[in-house]
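Re: the 341-residue chain
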Amino acid sequence: MISRIRRINAFVRLGKFIGDPANEETIAEWVAGAKSRNNWFTPANVRLSLNAITQEYLNEEKLKSWAESYPEPAQSCKIGVVMAGNIPAVGFHDALCVLISGHTLLAKPSSDDPLLIRALLGQLIEIEPEFKEYIHFVERLNDSDAYIATGSDNTARYFHYYFAKKPNIIRKNRTSVAALSGDETQEELRALATDILQYFGLGCRNVSKVFVPAGYDFTGFYQAIEEMADDYINHHKYFNNYEYNKSIYLVNRVAHSDNGFLLATESKALVSPISVLHYQAYNSVDELRTLLRESEEKIQCVVASPHLHLPEALPLGAAQTPGLTDYPDGIDTMAFLADMR
C-alpha cells in the first residue's frame, strides 16, 4: 500500500498542477473535451468545478487534517464506485475518499462525464505512478469488495438489488432548499441566485425550492439578478427548458413569476424543473423549522438568511462550495472506508 503521506502529497501536487498557469494548455484540453461530450458543461462551469476541487479538496492543510482524522483500514479493498455526472467532476470526491484511504478504486464514470474523472486521475498517476495499481476504470463492478453508488431513486432500487450482499453506500435523489426572511440585501439575493442557477441547477446542492414569508414579493429578487440574464438566455439547452416550462404554465394557467430566464411558482414539491424555482410560504419561524424537518431526508443542504437564526443552515451563496466533510446524503464515506475488512 502507498503510504498515507505519499497519497496526501500526490493529491496536493494534483491541486497545484491544476492551479499552475504553466499547465493551462492541458487544462484547456480537459475543459474543451468535457464540453464536447456534454453541452451542460460550459467552459466556465468546468473551470468553476476544477477550482472548487483545488481550493476545497486539495488544499494541503485541509486535506492532511481530514485524512489523518480517520484510522487506516485493516486492509486494502476494491471499492466499486458508480459515479454521477450531473455537474462536472462530481465523482471526484468519492475517488479521493477511496484512494486517500488506501483502497483500490474501480470507477464506473457517468456517460455524462466520461472525460474529466479520467483526466484528473490520469494526471494523479503521472504525479505518483504507484497509483496505477490502485485506479481502474471498469464497465462491470463484479470484483468489488464494497460499493458506493450515486443515482436517482429508481436506480437506487437497482443498486440495492445488485449490491445488497456486500457493504455499500447507495445514494438517492436529493435537492437543496433556501429560507428567506424578507430582509435580504441585494448582495444576499444575488448569492441565493448563485445557489439556484450555478451549474444550471443540475446539482443536488442547487437550491430548487425557497421558503419565503407569507406575502413575499419576488420583484426585489428579480431586480438583484438582472445582470445574470445573458448566461442563461444564451445557453440553448437551458433556455429551451425555460421556454417549455413557461409555455406549460401559460397553457395550464399556472400562476407564476417570470423575469425572462427564471420562473417562480408556488409548490409544495421540493424538486423543480430546470429554469423553475418552487416556493412555499411560512407564517412563523417555528412553522419553517417544521417544514424543513418534515423534508430533511430529501434535502442535501439548507441555505438561509442570517436573520432566521437557523443553526443548521449555510449562508446564502454557500450551497455549491462543499468541504471535504460535506458528505452526500450525510453518510460519512471515509468512516465507511476505514471500517473495511
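The chain has two domains: 4-173, 175-315.
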